[in-house]
Amino acid sequence: MLYPNVEELRARYLGIxxxxxxxxxxxxxxxxxxxxxxxxxxxRRLSSRFNTRIYLKREDLCxxxxxxxxxxxxxxxxxxxxxxxxxxxETGAGQHGVATATxxxxxxxxxxxxxxxxxIARQAPNVARMKMLGxxxxxxxxxxxxxxxxxxxxxRDWINNPSDxxxxxxxxxxxxxxxxxxxxxxxxxxxxxxxxLKEETGKELxxxxxxxxxxxxxxxxxxxxxxxxPSVQLVAVEAAGExxxxxxxxxxxxxxxxxxxxxxxxxxxxxxxxxxxxxxSISAGLDYPGIGPLHAHLFASGRGRFLSAxxxxxxxxxxxxxxxxxxxxxxxxxxxLAALKQLSFREEEVTVICxxxxxxxxxxxxxxxxxxxx
Amino acid sequence: xxxxxxxFKKRSGDILNIYFTAGYPELASTTGILTxxxxxxxxxxxxxMPYSDPLADGPVIQASSMxxxxxxxxxxxxxxxxRSFKPQLKVPLVLMGYMNPVLQYGFERFCADxxxxxxxxxxxxxxxxxxxxxxxxxxxxxxxxxFIFLVTPETTEDRVRKLDKLSSGFVYAVSSSSTTGTxxxxxxxxxxxxxxxxxxxxxxxxxxxxxxxxxxxREACRYANGAIIGTAYIQALxxxxxxxxxxxxxxxxxx
Lengths: 374, 255
Hints:
Chain A is an alpha/beta fold. Chain A has 16 helices and twelve strands. Chain A has helices at 3-18, 20-34, 44-50, 68-81, 95-107, 117-122, 124-132, 147-160, 178-186, 188-201, 217-223, 252-255, 293-301, 311-325, 331-338, 363-369; strands spanning 40-42, 53-58, 86-91, 110-116, 136-140, 165-168, 208-212, 233-241, 257-261, 264-268, 304-310, 350-355. Chain A has a six-stranded mixed β-sheet with strand order 1-2-12-7-8-11, sandwiched between helices. Chain A has a four-stranded parallel β-sheet with strand order 5-4-3-6, with helices on both faces. Chain A has a two-stranded antiparallel sheet with strand order 9-10. The mean pLDDT of chain B is 93. In chain B, 49% of the residues lie in helices and 14% in strands. Chain B has one domain: Alpha-Beta Barrel (TIM Barrel). Classes of the chains: A alpha/beta, B alpha/beta. The A-B interface holds A 1, 3-4, 141-143, 148-149, 152, 155-156, 159-163, 257-263, 268, 270, 272-276 and B 51-56, 58-59, 62-63, 66, 69, 74-76, 98-105, 125-126, 128, 150, 152, 154-156, 159, 174, 177-179, 182.
């Protein structure tokens, strides 16, 4: 039923993305509006804690506070060239919703964001940001009322409004061409890492790149230009929630099996009867029962190393980064940091961690933990 | 002979296809609903296999799916119920569901068991035609099942013809590009159905989505071979015992 919507996009996205005027406009906005390139920061105290060299790719310094805007800028320019008047998006924690509302304001386009009713209640500041930016936030009242259901509602909206509406999917999931298109828009992360490492260390290849994975957009962007560099280890960190075996987890590669969700075939957390399981993570951005097909492939082929971090490990890592480096990371990114303890390092080698977002939106959760970390 | 083909041979117009969600309102409602539907005039019955993420369905059918899953409905349970009902089955049955549960059950095993349980056709809205044609069509045909594709007003003529070619039994014309249960302006629908009719497809056309009462059913039948009613029937089932509410509902449409 989505065929005409997806077909138009499939036929035109690569052509549009290659147009010189598109490239110019996209690059210009990334530089002057988003604030790219984002710094690649040698985290000295964190490095000495692990007796190695750890660089943080500072996506948290992007406008709106996370890497999500790299993709929404690209898609809004694409939507304008497709002649779309109305933009829809799904959001979990609200980061992608805010990034979408932001670019819609920038382009003067109508913006509708679907968000699970449960998430609306627990992410009030981001809901307010979206509204202030002029977006309409519609609660998803079906199912478990979280990200998965918000995505269902957005897809239903798109089925109902096939001609004038563009759907900005926030991760490397959904029907083709989304996984590829979103990965391309996020690939600016690894392009910059390569250039910055070259300048900083003389070598453009690190020993490894570490990123958290829910659907997997920041990981796809951070891995992209290293996919064909076998010397670079790609480490994807999933949310174990309360523990892989706890029944409250979001570690899709550990708990999922092959299935179809939101228009792509990938790994999906599901019951034996094929009903999609509601995942759990303290981080709303990783709270998704699927994983992008690129990552399912990295997992199956062994190209990627998949680790997981629990809610508590992520919280600890967030407090540790705050105290060691003066950076408060998003809970999602804290999962990537938490995985450092599961890795072994040589002193001279370089590890890059994609610090995908900042922790402002998670202060409520952090404040509840303050006592045990003071 | 295939039961659906047989039905359209006997009567080419005013075909009434009623949809219900398996496992709703109760896990064991299936038999009672099937009995009532065929006794009170449904020509064809479409059974929805409940799914946690029913993308092509509106709020009413979503809610019925969720209730059905809470009641414990599974593909295996439904097929078992259908097997035991088979001796009483008089009308063709079509199963509608989403790809993921079918894949977990095993696609071929599903086709084999459905066929054995008396099912005539399948509707899987999230199985794209290319995947169907290259990966699943052989299996569906092997078990003598019809496969029914959906077309919408956005579907181009080329693609309507392609989907018609790949479909058997009938083609499911979504009456607007919309998820089920949405009210739609019948004038626009008429233009679209006229266009479909002008293509002279090989399959009969049934109109789904947005048909809710006698007037909208009659209107749809002017342009197509019949219509499918789902949401309105699910709502009717809330009004009382299955047999009584089904009788009232079907009398309201047919008399």
